[in-house]
Amino acid sequence: MGIQRPLAAKLVGRWRSGAPLTLAPTHDDPALGADPRRNNNFTYAADPNGRQVPLGSHMRRMNPRDTNLAQLTDVNVHRIIRRSTTYGPPYDPNATSLQDDEAARGIYFLFISAKAMATMEFLQQEWINNGNFMYLGSERDPNVGLQEDGATFTIPQQPVRRRIHDIPTFNVLRGGEYLFMPSLSALRWISDPRHSSGR
């Protein structure tokens, strides 16, 4: 059986439709998830302790917005434009073991940043695989973090928090490249006076 939907939403910070927990804390809202003008228009000001969106959820780690951080950092410096596309067949929810479903599947993840190497390496080292910036100790990103044995994920609740134990590593990095955009040849073409004379 797959991860229950409310737990999956807590791990990611969004429901399957894309609706953020901040705006839809108790149930999925597909109309909200499909509306790009609304589904990213929120802050965490009303949820400082992570009771709607856990502090360690993937979405909140990758863009803390106005969350009070333990380590002083300018959140906007580390923002990236991201897009991805999947490959392979959809996951079979009826599979009972890894051997029942060995199809190759995953995502091609693309991001754009003014300082790609510095930004991506910062995100991996500080926000994905280190919880100190968000008062989470050794907890790592539950979605893309490289988990150690006995990894945990904390869901703040009153009166007692809920802690999920033995979080596995869900994603395995197969490779990556840093590319210039525009390419160096395009920059040389643009800088050539013959092409920049205004004609």
Polypeptide structure, described:
The chain is an alpha+beta fold and 199 residues long. It folds into 2 domains: 42 residues, no CATH class; 144 residues, no CATH class. It is built from 5 helices and 4 strands, in the order αααββαββα. Strands 1-2 form a two-stranded antiparallel ribbon. A two-stranded antiparallel sheet has the order 3-4. A hairpin with a 6-residue loop joins strand 3 and strand 4. The chain is globular. The model has no long low-confidence stretch (mean pLDDT 86).
State the distance separating the first and last CA atoms.
Answer: 63 Å
Helix and strand composition category: alpha+beta
Major sheet details:
2 strands, antiparallel
CA radius of gyration: 20 Å
Sketch the topology as an H/E string, one letter per element.
Answer: HHHEEHEEH
How many structural domains can be distinguished in the coordinates?
A: 2
Strand order of the largest sheet: 1-2
Report the strand count.
4
Determine the strand fraction and express it as a percent band.
5-15%
Mean residue pLDDT: 86
Please bin the fraction of helical residues.
10-25%
Q: Identify low-pLDDT runs.
A: none
Shape: globular
Query: How many helices does DSSP assign?
Result: 5
